[in-house]
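Hi there,

I know you've been waiting on this one. I reran it after we fixed the sequence typo, so this is the corrected version. Both the input and the resulting structure follow.
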Amino acid sequence: MKISQGRSLERLINFTDAVVAVAITLLVLSIVDIRGTDNDETVWQVIADNASVLITFTFTFVVVAMMWRVHTRVLSSLVAYDSVLFWLNLIWVFGIVVLPWTSALFGEGIAGNVRQWSGGQGLGGAGMLYWGTLAVISGVTGLMNRHLSKHSELVGEREDAVYDGRLRSILYTSMFAAIGVISLFAPALSWWLPLGLFPLGIILGRWDARYAKRHNSAQPSAANSS
């Protein structure tokens, strides 16, 4: 299997970072047209009338930033990449590119459902599409971690720097997929389920800190034994 490194690796990382930057910028398009329709409206009324779109934008912005941070840990550990990692990264990039569109559809779907308020109507598949996209992005990150754990030549002497995020990926992927399915049958419930992502992130953050502490403390022992 062909392995690419050096300048080729730098271009892959720069390309990925550029796509994420553009995707985050495109998220703004879903809110740039928000403005008052009546001169007597206050800014708070405009925000209230467009709350679903604004909340979706803010949530997606934060999630993309977090996913990019985790993804950066993966790419920063590389000294080379192979074709499998290239295509996995391309799928991840595709998901990030599609996300602004699915986010806009999801925000509009929530707004329409709120206006009609019937707890039994779905979001026309917009919720499943949005959460499904997030599940794919998270799942691909886990596959990249798994691939690197089996191919130490891609990280070389920096093998210890590989970020083991498989547990994080499994939990987030499962939760995103579950919320998407629930949004088809119980949209009112699906609006509240994403709140569980924040305490989950805090718990996993502490888990990562403990993992890093154990890993760092084990290194001197290994060096002394050698």
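Quick highlight: Confidence is low (pLDDT under 50) at residues 114-122.

Best,
R. S.
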